[in-house]
Amino acid sequence: MIEEHRLSGGYDGGAVRVGDTVRRVSGPWTPAVHALLRHLEEVGFDRAPRALGLDDQGREVLSFLPGAVVGAARPWPGWVHGDDALRQVAHWLRDFHTAVAGFVPAADAIWRERAEWRPGLIIGHNDAAPYNAAWLDDRLVGFFDWDFAGPVTVEWDLAFTAFGWVPLHARQVVAAEGFTAFADRPRRLRLFLDSYGWGGTIGDFIPIVQQRVLASAEGIRRAAAGGDPTFARMIEHGVDTTLETAVNELADFPAV
C-alpha cells in the first residue's frame, strides 16, 4: 500500500503527499485549474505543479514542489520577510503573468470563486502568499494550491501578492507572523513593485489593494453562506474580519 503523508496548513482539510505527488480533494473547478497548469507546462513555465489527473479516489493528482514551506509555523521563518524573497516573488509573478497571457479558458470553465473570464483578464493564481510557496536553497521553487485560480486583472493578482509578502495585512496578523517593521513597508512595497515592473505610484496602488482585499472578504462570506466548508472555516477563524481590518488600516498608508 502506498504511504500517504498529510501536509500541514490550509482550511480545506489538507492535502497528502504520495511519493513525488500531492493528492487533494477535487471540485467543480479542478478541470479548469488543470487546463491552466497544462498550459503553463506547454509554454515552459516550470515553477508551478504539473497536473497529473485524478486518482482512483477521485482526488486531483499534482506533482510535488520540493523545499521548505511555512506550514503551520508561527512566527513564520525569517526568509519570508527578506528583501530577496520580495524580489524573487515579484519576478515569479511577472514571469507567470507573461506565461498565462495567452491562455484562453474554455467557455464552460468553472472557477472556484465563480468569476467569468473576458478579454483583458488573465487567470491569476489569486493566492500567491507565503503559505503557498516552496523554497529550496534560498530559491523560490514555485507556488502550490491553485484552487483559487480564476479570472482577474493583472493588477488584482499583483495586489494580493503584495498584500501577503510586503506584508500589507492587518498589523495584528503580520505581527503574529513575525513582521513588525511597519515603518519599512513603503520601501518594501516600492521594491516589490519595481521588481515586478509596475511603474505606478504607491498612492495609485494602495486603493487597488484595498478593493482586492475587500472583495476577498466579501467572497469568503458569500461562499460560506453558499455552503462551502473551506470558506466556513475561514469565517470561524475570523479571516474575513481581519481582511476588513487591513483595508481600514491601509487608509493611513504613506502615499510616497
TrEMBL record:
**Alphabetized Pfam families for the sequence:** APH
Report whether Transferase shows up as a keyword of the record: yes
Q: Which domain of life is it from?
A: Bacteria
Q: What is this protein called?
A: Phosphotransferase enzyme family protein
Query: Per the record's keyword annotation, is Transferase included, yes or no?
Result: yes
- State any single GO MF term: transferase activity
Ranges annotated as spanning the membrane: none
Please provide the record's keywords in A-Z order: Transferase
